[in-house]
Amino acid sequence: MVPRCTTNATNCVAASSTPSSLTLNGPKGYAHARIEADIQHRHSGDGSASSPNSASTFLRIVEDRPYFPLLQLDPTKNESVVDVARTVLSAYNKNSRSNNSTDAGDVNSCEGKVTVITGGLTNALFKVDLNSSTDEATNNNTSVLVRVFGSEGMIDRDIDTANFARLCNKSTTGGHNVTNQFTVIHSQLDLLGRFANGRIETWIPNMRQAHHVNDFGATAANCTELSREVARQLARLHYGFDIPEYLVSKKGGGVEMTPTLWRVIEDWTGELKNALEDETFVNDAALVKLFEEVVVSKNNASGTSPAPTTEAIVSELTNELKWLQKVVETKHPDATVVFAHNDVNAANILLDASTTNTDNNDSNSPYNEQTVCLIDFEYGAINYAMFDVANFYCEHCGGNDNAAPDYTLFPEHERQIDFLREYLKAKRGILRAKGEDEEQTAATDAEMIARLLSQVQLFRMASNLYWGVWGVLQAAGDVIDGTFNKENAKLRLLGNVGMNNWDNLRYGMNRLGGYWECKERLLTIGEV
């Protein structure tokens, strides 16, 4: 239950917003709510779908949480951030079946303080503190996370939000429609509601972002124990989460789970072609050289290629994708497919700020499901389990701060083995608790880990290709701090914007460089 201010102001959700009795769930539930909102707006004659009255009063309950499909938040105005947070949280207190308190509470008269949360590469993030102005002595305050969606068109926000709602459905609370036998994410993490261009989530106090070197680096104190906890949490996500019905397809009386990895990269590459249709990058010699080195010259022995065109870039990326997919499906046709996070990096791992990492044995490890929290599941989808593992290894190399990953920081062989050993141990415990037997195999743990390591090497390439295309496409669409700016995107593409801020293009190119580095190494040793 979310803590609430207890002032007695009139609830900000008007009577006309009373949600319909129709049960709305999944991505289709959000789509249905928007259709309803559009129909009501066209018949209301209020003149504007975004008018304050209609926006804050049209409400539907989807996935047992409030959804305001007409309510837009302006991330450049603190008052807009606070108003939307109040509206959504008030509706959550009043309407959500997860709220078992008889005191619905009200946040409408609470003073709002907005803090910008840095480090998000996809969304604009804000912490909103709603403090009671009438009774400071009670310290009865509410803090929430406001997420304003970025990466327009790259993420299906209906699927993303429905996934997050299902992940937050915990059997221990007894409040939501229970779907999970296990608490697969942090017990305090929850979805409170959604508005037109974002959503409200719980704020977990006393947590900090992890750092790829200070916490996961080879010289960091107790980095092994922290990595083991991440392994356990990945296993819980992979094998403890009841995959939503809308993510799977029915085939021959059974359920088929198709990895989304290849389709997503293919889709992004197609979008990239459209976004860069008129750009040849000839206005920036440094970027031309970068594209020649990273994208074109790998398959051009003469080294005399002309300035790369959009066609050349897209063709090269498409060919690499097809080649890698064929290698994976040939070498590992039975690779395990699960619901994967797809973006496990240090910035998406929260650590208890009061926990010290100086203990060096299993029994005294400070890391557990309460002191370590995986967040930001927006790229979550059906995918190969070892993609998550390989991606986590890749993220040890950093780059989220300076767009330049240091590939020498990739975990050494023994650390990879230790992680996989803990992952398999956790996987078996989860399957036993669910009454499911792991597939019978004569393979020893060593043989199984060897197979997984082979998969990891291929998905290391896939991770670099995935985020490489993402970075270049983000540069073309340039969503920074929640703002979509086509002119800035063009300037950034042409190299006219400095490195004072995050640079999607250079990050993307560096990840693509990591892809070819991995490929050349595996070709040299005969692994592909």
TrEMBL record:
Write the Enzyme Commission number(s) for this entry: 2.7.1.82
What processes does the entry annotate via GO biological process terms?
A: phosphatidylethanolamine biosynthetic process
| Superkingdom, natural source | Eukaryota
**One GO cellular component term noted in the UniProt record for this chain:** cytoplasm
Signal peptide position in this chain?
A: none
- Which Pfam families does this entry report, sorted A to Z? Choline_kinase
What pathway does the UniProt record associate with this protein? Phospholipid metabolism; phosphatidylethanolamine biosynthesis; phosphatidylethanolamine from ethanolamine: step 1/3
Quote the protein name from its UniProt record.
ethanolamine kinase
Which species is this record about?
A: Thalassiosira pseudonana (Marine diatom)
